[in-house]
Structures are given as C-alpha cells and as structure tokens.
Amino acid sequence: MEITVGKYFWKLAPFIFVIFWSGGYTFAKLGLAYIEPMTMLVVRYGIAVCVLLPFVLWFSKPWPASVPHWTVLVITGFLLQCVYFGLSYLAFKKGMNAGTAAVIMSLQPILVAALGPSFIGSRGGRYLWAGLIIGFIGVALVTMSGNSLGPSPWVAVFLALSALIGITVATLFEKWHGLKTDPMIGGFVQYIVGFVVLLPVAIATETMVIDWHPELIISLAYLVIANSIISVGIYIALLQRGDATNISSLLYLVPPLAMFIAWFILGEAVSKLALVGFALSAAGVYLVSRRAS
Asked: Which of 4, 87, 199, 237 has its CA 20 to 30 A from that of 145?
C-alpha cells in the first residue's frame, strides 16, 4: 500500500510543485504592500523554522553524519534562500517589473541544459532543445501579453541575473554532489541559513516596520507552508530523484500559472496571447519530459 501511495505521490509531485511555486508571486505581491522585501524574507524563514522544528525533532530521518554533508546543506540553503530569493526581492525593490524578471528567470532551464554535460554528465538531444526553446517562447508571449515588460534599472537587471545564477548553480550542485537528505531536514537547515544571513541585511537596509494587515498574514501563511516548506521540499526531492534539466523545465510553467492565479485572486486580466503562451510552455515541458523518458 505504501509503495502504491508513494508511486502516485511522485507522479503528482511535479504538478504540486508548479502550482504552489507559481502562487508565490501573487501572495508575495499581496504581502509586500505591508512589509519590506528583506524583512518579509526574514519573517518568512523564521516562521518556517518554528513550524518545521517539532516535525524535525519527532518525525524526520537521521540527521547528516558528516561535515561534507552539512556543508552541502548550508551551500544549497545559501544559494536558494539568500542568493535566489534575496536577490530576486532586491531586484523588485530596485524597480524591476514582473515581466522582465519572469523572462530572465525562464532562462534557467536552458542554462541547466547547457551546463549539465560539464557538471553532471547529462546529455542533450533534439527533444530537449526543441522543448526548451518552445517553452521559452511561451514564457515570453505570456509576459508580453501582460504589458509588464519594460525598462528596468541596470542594478535591478544585475540583481535578477545574479539570482538566476544562484538557482542554476543550486540545481546543478544538488545533482552533482549526489547526497540524499530528508527534505524536511534540508528545508529546516536552509531556512536557518536564510534567516541568519538576511537578518543583518534587513537591519542594515530597511526600517523593519511591519503592518500586520490580514492580507499580510494570509500572504505569509501561504509563502511559509505552500511555497517554502512544500514547494522547496518537493523541488529538492525531485532533483535528488530525477534529471536536473527535466525538473528545471517545469519552471517554464510558473509565469503562465502565476498569471492565472493572479487573475483568480487579484483580478488581473488574462489575454488570448497569454493562453497561447501557456500552451507553448506546456508543450515545451512535455517535449523535455519525453526526452527524459
């Protein structure tokens, strides 16, 4: 029975990851009206640590036993929680719009596919590159359909590109070292790293004033449970189980789904061009998945 349940879970896991990860954009937008970016991440990571602590103490598997394994957890946490999320939020603070950021971040699957042979020995193919290119075109159509592309300060562009490098290196690093970690423990260590690193940044650069509006509470609840604990945990688990390029290609679905979630929750319009872009993104992911199969 456990084998059957596990089999179905891992089939559904990529879809759970994409949906919950995509919702992070809308709920972050909802909450950032009442809190500054770095302060929001510090509060988010602090709550995540408190939520995970009892589960880590009572239900998780044995902790890593070697210094190299602990080092791997800390590096992954720094790359994802500090470099990727931290620099992404700073890019928005410096004036980057959502469309530009979405297009920049959608380059991640292509970077993973291009660098994969050098770092993790994965190979390309016609399905892979066709899927990556079609998926990228789909993302570009979605972002253009929302009229959200526009000029961004060079500082913001640099921060977004640095965030892109962060999640790309984290993905390749996770596949390269090959160490298996209980996702619950991995997430717990990641959020401690994120909290410790970003707290001084928030103190030095922000007022840390928080307006505890109900929308901020809803936003943090989603970002902690669905985005931080479930999404990141599934992403790391999928990387440990599968092909890095195949998993990264799922990120092509994030901008289209984020737009639909924003339409449902915030009432933002979805155009016909966005529907076409969503279809192309889905087709790109299908081709990459077919190659992996």
From this structure: 87
